[in-house]
Write a structure and sequence with these properties.
The protein is 41% helix and 5% strand. It is built from 2 helices and 2 strands. The termini are far apart.
């Protein structure tokens, strides 16, 4: 297959070794997870986290509650 020169891989193109691929993925995973949890949740994220936590603790996945008080009269975005 003939590619135009602007789309060719150049002198560094071609296959990569398994060692290079493993290094790439380990580095990618490291950078993705290195700072995970270091920033606090925002206001809306903490609301959703609290709703989810209470759902898991009570086993009730149909009614939303915050601080153990039902907030079913509002939609989830306003709880």
């Amino acid at each position: 297959m003939n590619c135009p020169p602007e789309f060719s891989a150049g002198e560094y193109g071609g296959k990569i070794s398994l060692k290079q691929e493993i290094f790439f993925w380990l580095t990618a995973v490291l950078f993705l997870f290195i700072f995970l949890g270091s920033a606090p949740l925002g206001h809306t994220e903490s609301t959703w986290a609290e709703i989810s936590r209470e759902m898991l603790m009570t086993g009730n996945f149909w009614h939303t509650a915050i601080n153990w008080q039902l907030c079913g009269d509002k939609n989830l975005m306003n709880c």
